[in-house]
Design a protein that fits this description.
Structural class: mainly beta
Oligomer: single chain
Helix content: under 10%
Number of domains: 1
CATH class: Mainly Beta
Shape: globular
Radius of gyration: 18 Å
Number of strands: 29
Strand content: 35-45%
Length: 367
């Protein structure tokens, strides 16, 4: 697909970390300054630890849902036997499997199919497609009142009613490749990457408007909020590492090199580390939140891409984007435990259920 080709082309061109980022910050309402305020616990991931499963997922069987973008299918893996136990067709170019805010439904984001395929996680059955234009990715505001469809091709965010999927408002994004994001601690703002143009944008989700932007260069992809809520981490495929971005001032505080094709970001179950999948280097880097440095690099081989952490925190599941495989990595040793063959072009796999009170979307960003 275009994203993959662009990443490879840019990497081949030998791009490196760029000079100090250019800034275009618009007036920032004073009410959004709480974006850097941590929750009372001092950890925005305090409700996502081992054993903190929501009552909403009681009795839901543990499964790993793998959207195979090139094949137009989903493979369902039993994480106990590590075997595929179901396989079904969905819409054209499924990109991610996204848990609903209330944790009761999973949505397959069929990008070119212009639809969402709902899955009941209790039965594993897929329902009738929901017409939604260009759903490359999908998020939910922390209060559960809005779904945010990331329409990458259309260069816009479509705010929708998550019950009826009626369009509330479309917000144009000036830069190509808007695709991944995360929310501020108070849930009023979102920082999103624009993969094809090297920008990140800040969006007021209450008023549904862009309030700032920052050019970080390269090809920014996944975004994760730090445990204390003070900064966002932004993976960058071309620069080969992670930007640390202050969304209040829209500045890049520093850059952490990890490996070629830095792509996905996943918080450890104890909230102390950030796992970075380096898709072109064939490795996973571990960033210690306390020190801000890489504490370990795990060679995985292949093309580790998107995924999630197991409920008990002992495994990191990642799709092998260019290798039609899924990797299961032991987070205690960094060893690859299993390589499971799946369909062509596996992308945003979802490990479900995971601890947390609610889902913010993507492949499972929980709070």
């Amino acid at each position: 697909m275009v994203v993959s080709v662009l990443a490879l082309v840019l990497a081949a061109c030998g791009h490196h970390a760029e000079p100090r980022a250019a800034v275009r910050a618009r007036p920032h309402p004073s009410t959004t300054q709480v974006a850097t305020r941590a929750e009372p616990s001092g950890n925005v991931y305090a409700s996502t630890g081992v054993g903190q499963l929501s009552p909403a997922v009681a009795g839901v069987p543990a499964r790993v849902y793998v959207p195979n973008s090139e094949a137009g299918t989903v493979d369902v893996i039993d994480p106990v036997s590590f075997r595929i136990i179901d396989h079904f067709a969905v819409g054209h170019l499924p990109q991610h499997v996204t848990p609903a805010w209330d944790l009761r439904t999973l949505y397959v984001d069929n990008d070119l199919g212009n639809s969402l395929t709902p899955i009941d996680p209790r039965t594993g059955r897929a329902g009738a497609p929901i017409p939604v234009e260009d759903p490359y990715n999908l998020y939910f505001t922390p209060d559960g009142t809005k779904a945010i469809v990331v329409a990458e091709k259309l260069r816009q965010l479509d705010f929708r009613d998550p019950r009826t999927w009626k369009l509330l408002k479309s917000v144009p994004i000036a830069h190509a490749g808007v695709d991944h994001g995360d929310f501020s601690t108070d849930g009023k703002e979102m920082l999103l990457s624009c993969e094809f143009s090297g920008w990140v944008v800040r969006v007021d989700v209450e008023h549904m408007s862009v309030t700032g932007e920052l050019h970080v260069g390269g090809s920014p992809v996944d975004v994760k909020l730090s445990p204390d809520g003070s900064v966002f981490y932004v993976a960058n495929q071309v620069r080969g590492g992670v930007s640390v971005v202050d969304a209040s001032s829209m500045t890049e505080r520093r850059f952490i090199p990890t490996g070629r094709g830095a792509h996905g970001l996943y918080v450890s179950r104890d909230g102390r580390a950030l796992y970075v999948s380096n898709r072109l280097a064939g490795s996973v880097s571990v960033i210690d939140f306390a020190t801000g440095h890489v504490s370990a690099t795990w060679p995985t081989g292949g093309s580790p891409d998107m995924g999630g952490v197991s409920a008990d925190g002992t495994q990191l599941w990642l799709s092998g984007r260019y290798d039609a495989a899924v990797y299961v990595i032991d987070t205690r040793t960094g060893q690859v435990l299993h390589r499971i063959p799946v369909g062509r072009g596996p992308h945003g796999l979802c490990v479900f259920p995971q601890p947390g009170r609610y889902s913010l979307g993507h492949t499972g960003v929980f709070r």
